[in-house]
Specification:
Layout lengths: L2 H30 L5 H38 L7 H25 L4 H24 L3
The structure holds protoporphyrin IX containing FE (HEM).
């Protein structure tokens, strides 16, 4: 593995961890925001959530996808088995959850069980993606 590939892979893992972590915490904050009192507290949290989304989540997501795409070319990963196919399917589902979390932040939390379900699904998908990426069982 070349020096550049090593740096790229480290950047990929760092940005992927941040993308996942942000979705996990943002969906948790949505559920916890039900305990806030009054419009001004909710507006303050919404403003923080939107700033995190715009200035951290989206930039990390872009770098994660670019470094991941470079990984595919550098290691011919699609030819190694089916782990990457499954991983990318789960990444797509995770991005779908990211969309739902964005809507929760914008238009207000969904009913409680659905908000918690989204939060738990972020964990389950994150676990599955990391399991596939690290162990490559298929
Ligand atoms: C939340 C999403 C993602 C997470 C958590 C994640 C996590 C990881 C981790 C931890 C590794 C290192 C595995 C190891 O070397 O032991 C890895 C490698 C890899 N990732 Fe991702 N990744 C994500 C998204 C993506 C995307 C979107 C792509 C493609 C566009 C991608 C393509 C790859 C490839 C090809 C490798 C193998 C690199 C190599 O063998 O050197 N990943 N990923």
């Amino acid at each position: 593995m070349s020096e550049f590939q090593k740096i790229n892979l480290t950047l990929h893992v760092t940005t992927a961890a941040l993308t996942l972590g942000i979705l996990f915490l943002q969906s948790l904050a949505v559920v916890m925001s039900r305990r806030l009192d009054g419009e001004s507290q909710i507006a303050a949290l919404r403003s923080i959530q939107e700033r995190i989304q715009a200035f951290v989540y989206y930039p990390m997501l872009v770098v994660m996808i670019i470094t991941g795409t470079f990984n595919i070319h550098a290691t011919n990963a699609f030819a190694q088995g089916k782990w990457l196919h499954w991983k990318l399917l789960f990444v797509l589902l995770l991005l779908g959850l990211g969309y739902l979390i964005g809507r929760e932040i914008k238009v207000g939390p969904y009913k409680k069980p659905f908000g918690i379900l989204i939060h738990i699904m972020v964990f389950v998908l994150g676990y599955s993606i990391l399991w596939l990426a690290v162990l490559r069982p298929y």
